[in-house]
Write a structure and sequence with these properties.
Elements lengths: L19 H22 L2 H24 L3 H8 L5 H12 L6 H31 L6 H29 L3
Length: 170
């Protein structure tokens, strides 16, 4: 999107390409549906971290959708979800008892690589952007963004460590 809409790299608050608002709105719907599904079909002790994650995303993306602002910032945040493809594939391979296969091993490597690029680096970039642009962001929105990043970053670092320990440091 930045390549096609370079103006967005200068203004993540008020500028976004056509369809971006709809994409963020649909994402809120997905996170809401997944949240309700987990509440109904999983034990709380198994899903509390993901429920917490979804709550933070729903609030932050919901603000972007309702205000029609920060949609560009939410688009950057959606880059994190690229890694979800490999996290979900990992879970499917685990459920299918295919842990000792080349497919699982290859997915583990790609999963960690995309994790670093699309989760850790993206969250670091977003935190940096928020800090550098704090004077252009209203205090309440800045507080929500800062709290969101303060929650998401450690959660993702902990999950990275768990993946690394489980798949590579056995």
């Amino acid at each position: 999107r930045f390549y096609l809409h370079p103006e967005m790299s200068k203004d993540l608050v008020g500028t976004h390409p056509p369809g971006a608002h709809s994409l963020v709105a649909v994402s809120v719907g997905y996170f809401l549906e997944d949240f309700v599904d987990m509440l109904c079909n999983q034990k709380l002790h198994q899903s509390w971290e993901l429920l917490f994650h979804h709550s933070v995303v729903i609030v932050c993306f919901g603000i972007a959708v309702l205000l029609h602002q920060y949609v560009g910032f939410a688009l950057v945040a959606l880059l994190v979800e690229i890694n979800s493809i490999f996290l979900h594939l990992r879970q499917i391979l685990l459920m299918a008892n295919l842990v000792h296969t080349t497919c699982y091993r290859l997915n583990s490597i790609v999963n960690l690589g995309t994790y670093v690029v699309f989760r850790i680096a993206t969250l670091a970039w977003m935190t940096r952007w928020l800090f550098l642009n704090r004077q252009n962001v209203p205090p309440a929105t800045y507080a929500v963004g800062t709290v969101g990043m303060a929650i998401m970053t450690p959660m993702n670092i902990i999950l990275f460590y768990r993946l690394l320990r489980s798949d590579f440091l056995k």
